[in-house]
Amino acid sequence: HLLRIDIPRCWDACTGHDAVRLWIDGKPVITDGGDGKSVEARHVFTDTAPHDFRLELAHTGEDEGIRLTWVAPAEAQRARAVAAAQGADAVVAFVGLSPAVEGEALQIEVPGFSGGDRTDIALPAAQQALLEAVKASGKPLVVVLLSGSAVAMEWAKTHADAVIAAWYPGEAGGTAIAEMLDGSVNPSGRLPVTFYARTRDLPAFVDYNMRERTYRYFSGTPLWGFGHGRSYTRFDYGAVTALAAIRAGEPLTVTARLTNAGDRAGEEVVQAYLIAPDSLNRIGSFNDPVLRHSLVGFQRIALQPGKSGEVRFTLDPRALSTVDVAGDRAVRAGAYRLFVGGGQPGMAAGQEVRFTIAGEQGLPK
Predict the structure, then answer these.
(1) What's the pLDDT tens digit per position in 290-299?
(2) Using CB atoms within 10 A as the burial measure, which of 96, 106, 198, 251 is most buried?
(3) Rg value, the chain, Cα
(4) Domain ranges for the chain
(5) How far is CA 256 from the centre of its chain?
(6) CATH class, 235-363 region
(7) Whether pLDDT at 76 is above 80
(8) Which CATH number fits domain 74-185: 1.10.10.10, 3.40.50.1700, 3.30.470.30, 1.20.58.100?
C-alpha cells in the first residue's frame, strides 16, 4: 500500500490466528506464523513523505483476520481540532468512552479502568484537554457524550453551551443528533441514571451498602440527576389532585395538569416521586442509608404550544410500600407526599400533593 502521512502518527498491526507479514519501506516489521497469539508492532513516522506498505495474510479461519490501525499523537490531533474550530461557526465535539473498555470482566488495564470496572468516572484526560482547547477558540461548543454509563463532566457543564448524552446510538444516531441540534426535533429524553459530579461522590464498587448510591439515597448535589432532561419549550404544572386519605392496601389515583408554555411543540415526561414519612425513610440504625424519595410512575405527554393536558397515575399498594430493616415490605401508616413534575423534587418544575395512609398491610417481597 502507498499511504500518505500528513501528520506524525504511529501504525499498529495486530494479528489473530492467521499468519501475517508486514513490510514498511521494504523492511520486515512483523513475521508471524499464526500461533494464536496476538502480535503488535509499532513504527513511528517523523516525516510527511509517502511510505510503502506491504501486507500479506494467510487467511485460514472463518472468523479470523487482521487489523491495521493507526494511533495519532494526542498533541497532533488536538492541533488539527483547534485549527478546524477556528474556521468554524460552532464546534460539536464527540467525546466519551467505548464498549471496548466498558463491560464485564474485560481483560484490559488502562487508566480509569480495571478489567472492565471503572475506577475513575472522569472524562479521559486527553479528551478533557481537547474540549478545553477547542473552547479557547471562542466558538459555541456542543459536547456529545458517547458512553454506556455516567461520566463526570463538571467542566463541560460549566463551559459548554450544550451537552448531549447520546449513549451508544445505532446507525441512525448521527441523523438523530443532527436533527436535534438543528432544531427540527425537540429533545425529550430523560436520564436513567445519576450523573455524579466527581469520582469521590460515588462509593467504591466493592461496597454494596446503598449509602449515597442512586438518586434514592444520594445526599449530595449531582452533576445531572436521575430523570433530568431538557426541552426547547417549557412546561408549567397546575395543581396535583388526589384523595387526602386512604387505607393501607387501597390504590391512590393522582391527576396532574400541565401546559406547554413555550412556542414549540414538545413532549414532557411527567414523573411521580413518593416521599415517605421521615420515620420510614431510615430503615435501620443511624449509619444506614436514608431513603430520600422513589420514582413510582412516569408518563409521556405531547403538547402543542399553549395547549394543556392531563396525566393520571394509579399507584397500587406496592408503589406505596416501604421495606424495613428486616426486609419486610408493607404499606405503612403515616403522612406522605407525592411530587409530580418534570424531574426529581427540587430539580425540576412540578407540584406536590399530601395524603395520609391509615393502617398497615404486608406485601410479598
Answers:
(1) 889 999 999 9
(2) 96
(3) 27
(4) 2-71, 74-185, 235-363
(5) 29
(6) mainly beta
(7) yes
(8) 3.40.50.1700
